[in-house]
Amino acid sequence: MPPGAGDVGETREGVALSAWDKAGVDFQIQQHHEDIRKKLKTNVMALSAEQFEELVSNLFRKMGFREVSRTRLSGDGGIDIRGTMMTIGNGVIRTELAVQVKRWKRNVQAPIVQEVRGSLGAHEQGCIVTTSDFSSGAREEACKPDKAPISLVDGKELINLMLEYQIGVRRKEVPLFELQESLLDDGESDDD
User: Fold this and answer.
1) Strand 66-70 to 81-88 pairing
2) DSSP string, 121-169
3) For 113-149, how does the pLDDT look when each residue is reduced to its tens digit (9 = 90+)?
C-alpha cells in the first residue's frame, strides 16, 4: 500500500479518507479546481453580450485599470471597453487600453484583430478578450512588426484571471493538519 493511502478513519459522512484519497489530496484539489473552471466557463457563456461586457469591465477594474467604461452598444468601431492603467516605475506611465470582447464558441480570426487595430485612438493599445481561442492567423496579426500590438486573452486565460481576481468565485481556506515531530509537543513555543 503506498504511503498515505492507509485507512485514516471515518469521516462524518462515513467514508474512509483512503477511499477519497486515491490519487492524493493535491490531485483531488486539482480536480475540484478544474470542475470550478468548467462551471465558471458555462456561467460566462450563459451571459448576454451586455453582461459579458460588464463582467470584463469589472475584471479590468480589479486588475487596476481606472476610468473603465463601456462604449455604446452600436457604432463603437469594434471597441467595447476603454480603460486607463497608471503604472509607476521611474516615472508615471499612462496606458490607454481599448478592448473588444467576444463571447464566442468559434475562434477569433485575423480580420477582428485588424478591426480592433483600425479602431485605436492615437495613444491607445488594443486588447481582445474571448471565451474561445484565436486562430494562428489572428495571433500572427496581433504581433506584426511595425504595427500596434494587440493583446490577446483567450478563454482559458480569461477564466484564470477571473479565478485570480475572484470574479464569480471566492477563495476558501481549508484547514489542514500536519504531524508534529513529537507527540509530547503541544505546538506552543518554549520561549517563555
Assistant:
1) antiparallel
2) -TTEEEEEEESS-B-HHHHHHHT-TTS--EEEE-HHHHHHHHHHTTSS-
3) 999 999 998 889 999 999 999 999 999 999 999 899 8
Per residue in 5-57, pLDDT tens?
444 444 444 444 545 556 688 888 899 999 999 999 999 999 999 999 999 99
Cα gap 31→38, rounded to integer Å: 11
| DSSP for residue 94 | E
Structural domains of the chain sorted by starting position, each given as residue range(s) with its CATH number in brackets: 48-164 (3.40.1350.10)
Q: How many CB atoms lie within 10 A of CB 16?
A: 13
**Cβ–Cβ < 8 Å for 53, 103:** no
Classify each residue of 73-90 as buried b or exposed e, where b means 16 or more C-beta atoms within 10 Å of its C-beta.
Answer: eeeeebbbbbbbbeeeee
- Are residues 130 and 116 in contact, defined by beta-carbon separation less than 8 angstroms? no
Count of other CB atoms within 10 angstroms of residue 11: 11
Q: Which of the pair, 77 or 132, is modelled with greater confidence?
A: 132
- What is the DSSP annotation of 43-89? HHHTS-HHHHHHHHHHHHHHTT-EEEEE--SSSSTT--EEEEEEEES
User: What is the rounded CA–CA span in Å between residue 54 and residue 45?
Assistant: 13
